[in-house]
Amino acid sequence: VTADAEWAAEIRRLADERDAVLLAHNYQLPEIQDVADHTGDSLALSRIAAASSAATIVFCGVHFMAETAKILGPDKTVLIPDERAGCSLADSIDAEQLRSWKAEHPGAVVVSYVNTTAEVKAETDICCTSSNAVDVVRSIPAEREVLFCPDQFLGAHVRRETGRENLHVWAGECHVHAGINGPELTERAEANPEADLFIHPECGCATSALYLAGDGTLPEERVKILSTGGMLDAARSTGASSVLVATEVGMLHQLRSAAPEIDFRAVNERASCRYMKMITPAALLRCLREGADEVDVPAEVAERARASVERMVSIGR
Ligand code: 13P
Ligand code: SF4
């Protein structure tokens, strides 16, 4: 028995002992994804957390994801293997900033990406993820102004898809996705003219890829703007033999398992999220042994945030 197999067996034993369900985001390390009960994108994992009957949820992901699970299941124990696993995008707006922005646009509907703190969610009308952002905005009457935060690239994508001019976008970004730039993507795409391009809407290069598809530099039918869950669905149905992937590199593990015959390559191999990678095998073992780190959201904040998160899990697929 290898050390890895022993570790995995111990994780599963401790999880059973605690009546815990292990959830892992698509950006987690391969060994964490493989030991988890469920691996998926942020929307799928929120839905699983909401529906789970387990007493404990162990969230292998970043802090706002664990907070979202706690908001949806206040009576459950929610653990994260390392509470320092933050998110640069969630840090790009706080509740005070959102309140000032709302004061400038009275009556506007606030749509916040799930990558926000619980305090920001408490100031929000509807949360969304990259899988359902377009559907969420479409669910809002056309004449209402919309404030979309915090990701400017996802906001630009939603504005493009809905054609909505009364949608105002906050200027936040994720340092990992913003770093995957247009020139790099163009160079890779031109060197691999047969490849599909799977691009996460948080990427700085998403807008330039669509311009290049529009002017014929890139083949339009190959450019796909997708959430991480959407990438997995597309991988199962594309006829392409190679795919260039513009998102955090952890995604390659699920893609390669879903479609082993396809050659998946990262557009930028350095696109690794240091927060996601804080969830190490040792951290997960400690978490299950010690019941730490526990994630709590003050009841009053959770109460105000819950409606916006419940709307998120009920809209879109
Ligand atoms: P999705 O899981 O919605 O694809 O989001 C990606 C992300 O950056 C989460 O941190
Ligand atoms: Fe946040 Fe970006 Fe890391 Fe996702 S990849 S957790 S958005 S910093």
TrEMBL record:
Location in the cell: Cytoplasm
GO molecular function, one term: 4 iron, 4 sulfur cluster binding
Family, as annotated: Belongs to the quinolinate synthase family. Type 2 subfamily.
Name of protein: Quinolinate synthase
Keywords: 4Fe-4S, Cytoplasm, Iron, Iron-sulfur, Metal-binding, Pyridine nucleotide biosynthesis, Transferase
Gene Ontology cellular component list: cytosol
Pathway the protein contributes to: Cofactor biosynthesis; NAD(+) biosynthesis; quinolinate from iminoaspartate: step 1/1
